[in-house]
Amino acid sequence: MSEKVSGIPVKRKTNSPGNNQEKGGQTSNNKSSNPVTEIAGYSSSDKAHSDLNKSKEMAGTKYVLKSRNETKNNDGERTTGNGIKDSVGDTSDSSKNLDLGNDGVASLSYNSDQNVLYYAVLTVVTVLAFVTRLYKLEVPSWVCWDETHFGKMGSWYINHTFFFDVHPPLGKMLIGLAGHLSGYEGTFAFNKPGDEYGDIPYMGMRAMCACMGAALVPLVYMSTWLLCQSVTASLLASSFVLFELGINTLTRYILLDPILMFFIMASTYTLLKFLWYKDSPFSLSWWFWLSATGVFLSCAIAVKFVGLFVVLLAGYSTIADLWRLLGNHKLPLIEIIKHFVARAACLIVLPVICYMIFFAIHFAALYKSGHGDGFYSSQFQSTLEGNRLHNISMPDSFAYGSVVSLKHQRTGGTYLHSHPHLYPEEHPPRQQQITGYSHKDENNMWRIKPSHYEPSEDNSYPVFVKNGDLVRLEHIHTRRNLHSHREPAPLTSRHFQVSGYGQDGKGDANDIWQIVVPGVEEGAQIRVVQSKFKLIHYHVKCALFAHDKKLPKWGFEQQEITCNPDVKAGKTLWSVEEIRDKRLPDVSFEVHKPSFLDKFIESHAVMTQGNAGLKPQEGEVTSRPWQWPINLRGQVFSGKDHRVYLLGNPIIFYGLLVVMALFFLIYLVHSVKVQRGVKMTKEVSDFKERTFSACWWAMIGWSLHYFTFWPMTRVLYFHHYFPALLYGFMLGGITLDYMIKMLCNSLPRSLSVVVFHTCIGILLSGTAYSFYLFHPLTYGMSGPQANNPESNMYGLKWLDTWEI
Q1: Is residue 645 within 8 Å of 737, Cβ to Cβ?
Q2: Is 445 in a helix, a strand, or coil?
Q3: If you ran DSSP here, which 8-state letter would residue 21 be given?
Q4: I need a surface site. Which of 105, 267, 689, 776 has the fewest CB within 10 A?
Q5: CB 755: neighbour CB atoms within 10 A?
Q6: CA dihedral (420, 426, 429, 435) positive or negative
Q7: φ, ψ (nearest 5 deg) of residue 230
Q8: Across residues 41-68, what is the average pLDDT?
């Protein structure tokens, strides 16, 4: 630590607490101790450095920096050329001397007192984090909010049942693993929020998430220290995380968010730790932290795709670090190439390998057929035990009279489906609905018939369907034909309506479709699964089309099927997935079995499309990016007689906005001073450089995890933005530390000590008291609503949009 109550830190190059800096390999001729000074893109332009002699004291630790220009004033205080005061400290042997080396960099070794302070504070905040996260964790004893999704998915991992989800698998696998290790057998249905757990051992899954959430506090503490080497800033930043009610609430339930935030902050810490060893390249510690960064980055993105944002942060830092090395003219080019290869191996190749391993485990664990099969291709489904395509033998071609299911070839494609219900009066004519349905169902089956006659059922000689043939498709259950006409489609008015028409398989000329396989010669035989064809209406000249638009409730929210006048448009390819025809010889479906890489690529295409298609449901509470920083609206986690409401701690939330605004103001004033050539000492310049570097790096982390949500079209909820809050707290702690120290530096020594401890005391007690005021939001509210004078939350509903 390099801290001082009455002045500014003079340390410029330190060892991390509990570690001795390793010296090995090529050492850069760097002038800054902060591992992100260059990386944050900040560099002080003030070159008016002057030496000064000051003694420093903070928590009983004293430093002395030797100088040539030193005098004493009438109060017995040393003054330097810039007028900064510092008391005459004890210069006994117990003090640590800062020596300026040939490169002008001050070096300092930590003594035991400094280690004690660092680890004492770390221990206190860590213990408090686990206490606040594990307190009353078993309450409420029913399913809360999205536990209905992720608890259910954990159960499916335990039961090896395949499912579809828009997120990568690691977080859900960890939930399933925690449940399995704690005795849960995957038998609870997790049907809906409010379902009582009863005797189900759900605590193992909640405890794992809570422990990962508690680990955020020490991770933020250690990361902040690596940015600015200030225990005060680290204490403030970690206290904000500790007393933030939204983070606490979000990490107490069976959700992906605590797992995601843990890996994001673990990636941040290991990245900063790696940068800390920048002067010891290719040492054991350097390799360890670089590799650990790659592993945690892969874990972050393997929980949710928003883990990509911390990958971008690591990528930016790595590029900036390589650029710094390139500017070191004493470093041979071969050394720079070695640095580049090492980072590419550990931050690109290693994460990709780990990420693919997670998916390999995912595929191996989920080998039984489940509700998500229909989102995947026929080839993918054939690998799942219990699926009708698994180990099946069926014809590899189809003929007139064959009963088939048609699957759309868009990623995560739907099945061509129909049912007896008619289109409503507002979408005439009132003919039978044709929809897209993502699950296997008997209403997906159709009989293929020639255009001009009815095939004989006892015809023992099958006539195969070929490219270019004119066909009719008869729905098996309703006996109506696939039909189209020049009436507008229900949702996509520029397309034509597709309906079921006729009686007992007999209709009219608008039931005729031509099968066209693009790029294949006319007359070629069409294969099951392998052939991708278009169904082009013979008279209207439009192509059968499917997309993500969902019909209203009258269409059971199934996907709209239309006839697109643009026959060359995308999303018009179909294939035959299943065939029933006893006349044709069977072939094993094993020939269509996909490789791991095929399944890996298809899974990502399906997840990406699923994410893009997420839209808000009717009456659902969502959160746009502009609403989150002002804490406009939270999220109900639990109802009944134990109400839990996800909402940010209002005092901390709004306080952070003020501190961020103050940072921009402070930096603006500083920039103006530098531009005008205002002189400052080397000590002051270095302190500001280190502070602003750390702040801008944290600001970049905050921006990557917040502003990237603005262009997103998918539905967003209040909890999506909380990773940004972690970086905001780091920025807030560093900024407040800077403000307090600059204030104390301007005061007499006798007064600065009181002011310093008063400021820290007010900030810590204020955040702790705000936690106490609003803690029922996290630990449960009962009784009247907050607008009732008898409520324990009375007077705390500051905004009408808060549902408390």
Answers
A1: no
A2: strand
A3: P
A4: 105
A5: 17
A6: negative
A7: -130, 120
A8: 35
